Amino acid sequence: MSVAPLAGILDIVPYKGGEATIPGIEKPWKLSSNENPLGCSPAAKRAYQAAAEDLATYPDGDHAGLRAAIASRYGLDAGRIMCGSGSDEIFQLLGRAFLDQGDEIVQSAHGFLVYRLTAQQAGAICVSAPETNLTADVDALLACVTSKTKIVFLANPNNPTGTYLPYSEIKRLHAGLPDHVLLVLDAAYSEYVQTNDYSSGLELAGEAGNVLMTRTFSKIHGLAAARVGWCYGPQVVIDALNRVRGPFNISAPGLAAAEAAILDQDFANQSVAFNTRWLSYLTQEIRALGLEVTPSVGNFILVKFPSEAGKTSEAADAYLRSRGVIVRAVRAYGLNAYLRISVGLEEPNRLTVAALKDFMAS
Ligand SMILES: *Cc1c(COP(=O)(O)O)cnc(C)c1O
């Protein structure tokens, strides 16, 4: 008999990150991964470099410094914060600690792909609730909950749609869930949201016995390469995650960079202001070309292309590449007619609009 992984493991379609290269183009603009176009806080970079002076020593496996910095920034109990190698790892650890063969998770139809992967890794079933106007629908989510449901995953705002649910809807979702179902609020893009009916869910995660909120240093803090995320929620969930994670799951430079980043509120504020300006520019200018742009509160937009030959999302993707811009096809989400475009620096933002204008006119 030969070696073989558990049933179902090789059926998993591996996650594919945004592409970064175009053959024949030396320095393409990468608008495919919702990264921070301003980079990261200079203090975070210095902290990363300083930590790299000592690579022989194990990092702090307790993440005490980072947890204290996060707790102080948001007024939280540091004992109820858990840090992961990106929020992706936290989702996977949730699967390890909470999902068994045949269990179910519930997500919205265009939920972040990593939730499905988490379920598949555990032999659990991913149930997708229909959306309304590319937005999560609380009643549809609740209708999918059964006695087998262990986790409801909701990215708010959601990637790749950019849409969000107001806090009143989040509270209604929570109120409709049985106590044994864990509601995971993925707030990866929360810092970008500018509407006053929104909440990341920190408060709910502090009060409720079954709500976990996750955050990341990959987006607003511009530290995607460092791989740091965190979550806040009930002690029993935090304790479980700490038992199934690797003892040194975050590198010392990653911890140092994240700790410095959370203290640099100026950089985060600048990033939000920059995003707000250019999100609005991209949305308005691309709508003016006659294309449908989903109202986004994140750092990216979702654009719908016509079905007529030569004007499809595939054609637009290829044309943008020919002009040196890489965006994200979202076929893996079933959104075949759409492209997701991250907010970039001024030059690629203007280039993208100009290129799409030429594309639509051609
Ligand atoms: C980018 C993103 C994350 C962050 O992932 P990391 O592993 O922390 O880099 C989480 N959730 C959603 C929906 C995202 O788009």
Biggest sheet, spatial arrangement of strands: 2-8-7-6-5-3-4
Bound molecules: pyridoxal-5'-phosphate
Characterize the overall form. Answer: globular
Total number of beta strands: 13
C-alpha Rg, in Å? 20 Å
Level-1 CATH class name of the largest domain: Alpha Beta
- Determine the CATH topology of the largest domain: Aspartate Aminotransferase, domain 2
What about the largest sheet? 7 strands, mixed
Mean pLDDT: 97
Low-confidence stretches: none
Would you mind describing this structure in some detail?
Helices cover about 40% and strands about 15% of the residues. The radius of gyration is 20 Å and the shape is globular. Helix 1 runs antiparallel to helix 9 and helix 3 crosses helix 8. It folds into two domains: about 120 residues, Aspartate Aminotransferase, domain 1, CATH 3.90.1150.10; about 220 residues, Type I PLP-dependent aspartate aminotransferase-like (Major domain) (Aspartate Aminotransferase, domain 2). The protein has about 350 residues and is α/β, with parallel strands linked by helices. The mean pLDDT is about 95. The strands form three sheets. It has a seven-stranded mixed beta sheet with strand order 2-8-7-6-5-3-4, sandwiched between helices. Strands 9-10-13-12 form a four-stranded antiparallel beta sheet, covered by helices on one side. The structure holds pyridoxal-5'-phosphate (PLP). Pyridoxal-5'-phosphate (PLP) binds next to helix 3.
